[in-house]
């Protein structure tokens, strides 16, 4: 079974080592980890490189049985937007979805810290300087992310990892792989031509 390994680790200088470590964890559970770092297989000079990369990653996702998304906050209080897109894409394909975060603080608290002194009371909640209400569901990220994981039969593994190890610690990731292996073995292959 093939698992798409979404996350912002692709931006790390040592992403090849992280990819290999994650793929080794997947292999230990009888799964094949697909890390999104391969260059486009069919160069087409008529399209920009970023379009070719997008098309290849979409094809990779369609060919996978499930996704494990690293939802650790990235450059702000929420998960990487590319990873969020990939999670939504796989959810729309009806594939099992699993996520993890190496930050235990809740989304609302992280958002309030990002807003800082510009936060203002609004009824029972808080809003930012632009009048946008701060989500207050006491979740680890936006409700659509956790809702999607729940609806897809997956889980969200949460750990608090020191900042210096946040992008390389594989504890929560390993728990997701274990859960994915269990779920995928209990059902027929979900790979489709969707």
From TrEMBL:
Q: Where in this chain does the entry annotate a coiled-coil region? A: none
An example Gene Ontology molecular-function term? 5-hydroxymethyl-dUMP N-hydrolase activity
Do you know which InterPro entries this protein is assigned to?
A: 2'-dNMP_N-hydrolase (IPR051239), Nucleoside_deoxyribTrfase (IPR007710)
**Which organism is this protein's natural source?**
Siccirubricoccus deserti
- Write down the Pfam families for this protein, in alphabetical order: Nuc_deoxyrib_tr (PF05014)
Q: Name one GO biological process term.
A: deoxyribonucleoside monophosphate catabolic process
Q: Which named protein is this? A: Nucleoside 2-deoxyribosyltransferase
